[in-house]
Amino acid sequence: MADVGACLERKLKRQNSSCDNGGPAQEAGQAEPEENCGKVTLDERDVFFSTMQYHNDEKNYIMETMKSGTMGKGAARILVVDDEAEMRRLIADYLRDMEHYAVADAASGFEALGLLAKQPFDLILSDINMPGMRGFELLDIVRERFPSMKRVLITAYNVEDYFDLAIKYDIGNIFVKTAPFDFEELSIAIRNLLSNDIFGLDHYFEAAAERARFAVRNARSLDRHARAIADFLGDRKRAKYLEVVVVELLTNAIFYGARRESPERKDQWDLECELPDDKAVAVTAVRDRDKYGISVCDEGGRLKKADVLYWMNRQVRRDENGLPLGISDTHGRGLFIARRYIDRLIINVDRGRRTEAIIINYNDAKVSGHKPLYINEI
């Protein structure tokens, strides 16, 4: 079995070189082994992992306590995977002690798969850059073997560098490690995923926060509504950016969502249209002392995770002249603009029923650094 394991790791190493921007490339002149070391297959994984034995006392203790129910009977089960021991334990301890989940942790993708073979989990939270098996590869195996398990990646790097891989591996949630670490934001993201209760600003704001609601029925009123929303939120410094983002989101919601227009035929859109009351785009604006947020919700449910990633990726990737590949795209730029100028962009989709775009801005420097990716489909 050592030969099988060695071949498996060589295959994963080769995949890593083309799977991750930070992955090591093969050195010039270094020959690959002659045996078949192409893409790792599920059969080979099964053979390898079925024979792996785990003798780590800590992991055995965790598994026994989870089986006995002493780790939180009825609590959702989360597996945290990170090769950095301090970060892994920090997250696992918080989720276990403060959020009362049943939590196990693993230092590698191989170890995680061993735990998954012994115990069911509801959600896996994995680092991206790990030796041996990267987070994308691990979550791809999880998707194949445990399709109902929620999957979240975590990284300290720029999420936009991973858009290609997010598309390839169907990843909608990539959390960002910050300093200090934002445990509250991680808790909200995990809670929403586990419950499938993804819609609404109530997840992010207390009941006492001030609220204003708007029903948008036509394109003629977009600028007026955008100004009214910005005035209510009171962020004079970012008001112009905010108004641009709101107009873009409302345009998508009215024409692409409610009216189901083709984004490639904008010249045929009826700009004088009037939505009936039951199809009006619902907008909620909320503010408290620390932040404010806007929810734009339509009853179309047409967005797809893959489409959102594709459109945003085309604004990130550059051609040979250094220009965005999507510079001439007729659709999708609004989402990228929202991501670029807003602290948090969250896309929620109930396919065929409802689409919601949530934007959140903070009033201080809490969110400096890279931005996470939140695209939720139910």
Please name the defining characteristics of this protein.
378 residues, alpha/beta, Heat Shock Protein 90, 2 domains, eleven-stranded mixed sheet, 12 helices, 11 strands, globular, disordered N terminus
In short:
By secondary structure, the chain is an alpha/beta fold. The chain has twelve helices and eleven strands. The protein has two domains: 56-195, 3-Layer(aba) Sandwich (Rossmann fold), CATH 3.40.50; 201-377, 2-Layer Sandwich (Heat Shock Protein 90), CATH 3.30.565.10.
SSE blueprint:
Blueprint: H1 2-19, H2 42-51, H3 57-68, E1 77-81, H4 85-97, E2 102-106, H5 109-118, E3 123-127, H6 135-145, E4 150-155, H7 163-169, E5 173-176, H8 183-195, E6 210-216, H9 222-233, H10 239-258, E7 281-287, E8 291-298, H11 305-316, H12 333-341, E9 344-350, E10 354-362, E11 373-377
Parallel strand pairs: 1-2, 1-3, 3-4, 4-5, 9-11
Antiparallel strand pairs: 5-11, 6-7, 7-8, 8-10, 9-10
Helix pairs in contact: 5-6, 7-11, 9-10, 10-12
